[in-house]
Write a structure and sequence with these properties.
Length: about 280
């Protein structure tokens, strides 16, 4: 049915430009890569948007302390210490808190985390996980929460309230996905002044510009190969910027908060496409 739809459709869209390219390869195409390659002239990726009213740290009723782009330097850390207290972690605003909100499945790159987690959660770092999924991954995070009680919090559940608190509290969000058509977590992270650490795939590659300390550009961190050591290297670099290059870190967060990933940004591309299809050519 899907193949028939692709054959007879006037146009094909997916949720990011990079993913539109990836699905034309055998690795990502799930057997449809030949057809998608043949139709590449009638296909484009348009990144998803998020609701900027629901995800707004200035008005969000679910977080401990509201803040915005003008005062996050003073107020955002209040959310960290309150969440640390609630989850039973060591209460210290100077800790580097990494958030992970995800379906706990192979696709999300959790095997990479398992490979290096002992080296991620050092004396200066905390990891907070929210999600459900594969029992093996659920138990993996429960184990590390038991092993590192003051550093790792495993919340094996779906909780929108807790998710909002974590977006506001975390310093960075980790998304080491094998593949990710668009991704929403990194878009929400930008909104809350939290730096995404992502693998360069699909929408993650299209929406996160890697930090460049020499040109003072970028709004997050990324790595290209599906490799635990490479991911750890980037996480450690993010920690270095956070602790030793605070001015650069703050500028990076400012840039991320200034980005617009509301539906207002994407709707114009859909409008243009629909106008093209109905005859405004």
């Amino acid at each position: 049915m899907l193949k028939g739809g692709l054959v007879y459709a006037d146009y094909i869209t997916t949720v990011s430009d990079t993913y539109a390219q990836e699905i034309q390869t055998s690795y990502y195409g799930e057997g449809l890569d030949g057809l998608l390659s043949a139709r590449h002239m009638d296909m484009q990726g348009i990144v998803n948007g998020i609701d900027y009213d629901i995800y707004n740290p200035a008005t969000d009723p679910k977080i401990y302390c509201n803040y915005d782009a003008s005062n996050w330097r003073k107020k955002k850390s209040n959310n960290k210490t309150k969440l640390q207290e609630e989850l039973g972690l060591a209460v210290d605003k100077k800790k580097f808190m990494i958030g992970l909100i995800s379906r706990l499945t192979d696709q999300k790159g959790l095997d990479l985390i398992n490979y290096v987690i002992d080296r991620i959660v050092d004396d200066y770092t905390q990891l907070v996980v929210i999600g459900t999924g594969d029992p093996g991954y659920e138990n993996m995070f429960r184990h590390y929460a038991w092993k590192y009680g003051d550093r790792v919090s495993a919340n094996i559940c779906y909780s929108d309230d807790l998710a909002h608190k974590l977006y506001a509290a975390a310093d960075a969000f980790l998304m080491p996905s094998q593949f990710e058509p668009c991704g929403l977590t990194q878009l929400i992270s930008f909104r809350y002044g939290t730096a995404p650490i992502v693998r360069e795939t699909g929408g993650l590659k299209d929406t996160v510009e890697p930090f460049n300390e020499y040109e003072d550009r970028g709004d997050g961190f990324s790595f290209s190969n599906y490799n635990g050591e490479e991911m750890l290297k980037v996480i450690n670099y993010a920690k270095k910027v956070f602790y030793d290059m605070k001015k650069d870190w703050n500028h990076m967060i400012d840039r991320g908060m200034a980005k617009d990933f509301s539906w207002n940004a994407s709707k114009f591309r859909y409008e243009g496409l629909y106008n093209y299809l109905i005859g405004d050519k």
